[in-house]
Amino acid sequence: MSTTLTAHHVPAPDTALAVRRRQRRRELFTAWVMLAPSLLFLAGFTYWPIARSMVYGFFDVQLGSAEIFFVGWENYQRLWNDPLFWKSLSNTVVYMVVTVPASIGLALLLAVALDRKLSGTALYRATFFYPVMVPSVAAGMVWVFLYAPGYGPINGLMEWLGLPKLEWLYDSRWALPAIIFMSIWKYAGYFMLILLAALQMVPRDLYEAARLDGVSGWRQLLHITIPLISPTLYFVVIIGVLHSYQIFDYVFVMTLGGPADATNVLTFFIYQNAFQFRDIGTASAIANILLLVVGALIAAVALTLGRRVHYMGR
Fold this sequence. Notes:
By secondary structure, the chain is mainly α.
């Protein structure tokens, strides 16, 4: 009786390499098919408008007119000599400098408090996060009522406390701070939720060891909590800076850039030039400047805070 042994067929190295290449091409094709809708959306509504704005910044383009004229740097020279442009830029910078640290600082304090396993934590989380879920226009209208000089609850509280009433949105000294306060209320809960998720990843034994060594809660925050959640803090700062330069809806709903342009920011100034003055060329130049300013700020944050980020395991 004879036994025949059949060896398994082993593909040649060239054949195996060809199979891997075909599989890689198939996976790449599938990935492109899945990404195509999002890429088309980004190209049509993000990258193409940015490219067109960069070009239109050097042209005289009027809304509704098919004629365009090359003017070179004239739009930028006009903005350089325009006090309203510098006013809107300074308002935007003030808004960013105050809103980003204040909202992130408040969010960190709230996240640390909620991370202590207090009773009713779920209710507190929902309460602090609720402003984020309110649509921006609706939130603006609510705060217009709260700030109302005659019947607004805020002025009513100030009168009850014996403080003078203020015309919040009608006084050039208080209009921008009023919008800043509302923005902090609106977005602190969003940052809080992100930071709370990061806090729950910090090993608890580090806090136990610190307590046994007599380290106070404040020093634990500075030397344990903040270093270990620094990647998340870095992310939150980037998001906060980007958001601060996109403010438009609150200004449009609450003040329309007034009084006396006290709340006019770059995004609203772009809207004014494009749709009120019908000057697309100047609006595009402002948008290009805004893009450069935001890019420079993000680079500055990356070169400063980015180098101080501590990643666990490194």
